[in-house]
Amino acid sequence: MTALITMSLLSLLFLGPLVWRLWRDRLESRALELQAEIQAAINASLGGESMIAVRVNAGSREQSGTVELFVPAGWEDMLDPVWRVVLPLMPA
Q1: Does the global pTM surpass 0.85?
Q2: Residue 66 sits in which domain range?
Q3: How far is CA 14 from CA 11, 56, 62, in A?
């Protein structure tokens, strides 16, 4: 019985971080997919590459992730035409 408990605890010490890392990798992969989708939609709506950069941070079970759009100082007007394209792509 003691050997079974010991083996269970040792396997939990090994498998716990592995499962957590797989879960985080899946969340980060979905965030990168969303980032690419939003960037492609922005580029398509503006007719090519733009000065708008997109960053998507993966959330967790308790918190939702964030989507951030960056433009150089003074170029904030570039964001006005892309809001209608970006908002439908963002998860609820």
Answers
A1: no
A2: 2-89
A3: 5, 30, 24
